[in-house]
Amino acid sequence: MNNFEGNLPRLWKKIGSHGVMVLSTCSENRVTSRPISVVIIDEKFYCQTGADHLKYQQILQNPKAALCVKNFSIEGTCRDLGKPLDNANSAFASAYKKHFLLAYKSYSHIEKERLLEITPTLIYSWSYELTKPYMEYWDFENRSYRKEYK
């Protein structure tokens, strides 16, 4: 059952447009996780952090990152887009201000603050139909979808 495009609207509706998600990064055999405020724009996840923070340093060494929210696990590749308030990042700044006003006011203007973009490679989730568990997988690299009953 490979209807990737047909199942995308349902995926994004379930995940939503923003949220506090757990971000996991890894470098030098050290995996770390922490909650972070995230907005979603055009099938990509955006957050900001300081260039002097561990998560940023780990991403520079290893761009693979993961997010977790609700019953979704999101694997992807992360890159630095520059300062959150740069003109090229206006869609992010607007969404972040709307959903996380306090964080926007407190951090977005700081010189060392950086905008991170996570492009998903795989999103999966556990769900139930009545009492029967199943997993759904959205493979963004191969643009494929599958549902497996457990």
Largest sheet: 6 strands, antiparallel, barrel
Number of helices: 4
Series of secondary-structure elements, N-terminal to C-terminal: HEEEHEEHHEEE
What is the CA-CA span between the terminal residues? 16 Å
On the 0 to 100 scale, the average pLDDT is 96
Instruction: Please list the strands of the largest sheet in the order they lie side by side.
Output: 1-2-3-6-5-4
- Apparent shape: globular
Low-confidence spans: none
Number of strands: 8
Helical/strand content category: alpha+beta
Radius of gyration: 16 Å
Q: Roughly what fraction of the amino acids lie in strands?
A: over 45%
The gist of it:
By secondary structure, the chain is an alpha+beta fold. It is built from 4 helices and 8 strands; from the N terminus they run H-E-E-E-H-E-E-H-H-E-E-E. The longest helix is centred in the N-terminal third of the chain and has 12 residues.
Describe this structure in words.
By secondary structure, the protein is α+β, with helices and mostly antiparallel strands. 25% of the residues lie in helices and 50% in strands. The chain has helices spanning 4-15, 54-61, 90-99, 101-107; strands at residues 18-27, 30-41, 44-50, 64-69, 72-80, 113-129, 132-139, 144-149. Helix 3 packs across helix 4 (101-107). The chain is globular, with a radius of gyration of 16 Å. It starts with a helix and ends with a strand.
